[in-house]
Amino acid sequence: MIKFSVVIPLYNKEKDIIDTITSVMNQDYKADEIIVVDDGSTDNAIKLIKEKFQDNTYVVSQENLGVSSARNRGISEAKNEYICLLDGDDIWEKEFLEEIAQLIELYPKAIFYSTAHKYINEEGNYLKAKLSFVENKRGILENFVEIFRKNYGLLNSSSVCIRKSSEVVFPKNEDKGEDLCVWLELGVKGSLAFSAKALSTYRLNASNRSSTIDDKGSIPCPLKWFYKNKEELKKEKNYKSIQKFIYSNIFITVYGGFVLSGNYSSITAVIKLMKEHNDWFFVCIYPAYLVPISFLEVIKKMRREIR
């Protein structure tokens, strides 16, 4: 019997948290434990949880340290090897844990597992992530990073199950792509077993993401991870795929995020770091300063399509 620990980081999600936990309680394959990490919430979310799920959840409270810290705390508290992550405003279909359990049985040597997912966009519409896979495919994804680069909707922090023994830690004090750093590290360490069944739902317009970080002047986590581990990554046979992923992610983040929000201090910080590492890709970032206002809505539409 495979036992799952479900880790839910929580910061002011009183409007959604009941639906989130209910989706876990309604699973055909029951979770062994549900750990809610209260990351300094100031609303009534914890009160609601205790009123409705007192006997079914384990609540851990900490000061507001950000979503990475909350996930790490939940993982450290978990008593089982298989840990499923779920954000406090997302939901699972009732077959989610059963599908993950079947993936584990079929591919026991994988170190992380995921199903496909759906989005709820800004207009409240449900959209399935676009993947270049046969419907209902199950299997090990060879060259995970290359597939992830071509399929940005492959997985997210509410569709993934990781092995506790993988000892992966979510990077603290990061607000841009901290989860991507973990998926990349797992992809380098081992393999992903994937099911193309869309059994998780992620809210694109979620409010109150658990974070204490001011994103002005911030550098996306994947770029820092890449430079920090570059010499070791060069030994990987899939190094070129990793490099392409990093450049694609930076391009999307800068033009689809920083430009739209007018966050030019972060663009400057990215260019500065690239120059420090003699990375000539910074020439592709410079035009971000000059993007006309009329192009911003086009970029926003492109970003949504990529998502």
TrEMBL record:
InterPro entries: Glyco_trans_2-like, Glycosyltransf_2, Nucleotide-diphossugar_trans
Keyword Lipid metabolism in annotation: no
Keywords, ordered alphabetically: Membrane, Transferase, Transmembrane, Transmembrane helix
Listed transmembrane segments: 245-265, 280-299
SUPFAM superfamilies: Nucleotide-diphospho-sugar transferases
Keyword Signal: no
One Pfam family, short name: Glycos_transf_2
GO MF entries: transferase activity
Ranges of residues in domain Glycosyltransferase 2-like: 5-144
Name this polypeptide is given: Glycosyltransferase family 2 protein
Organism, scientific name: uncultured Sulfurovum sp
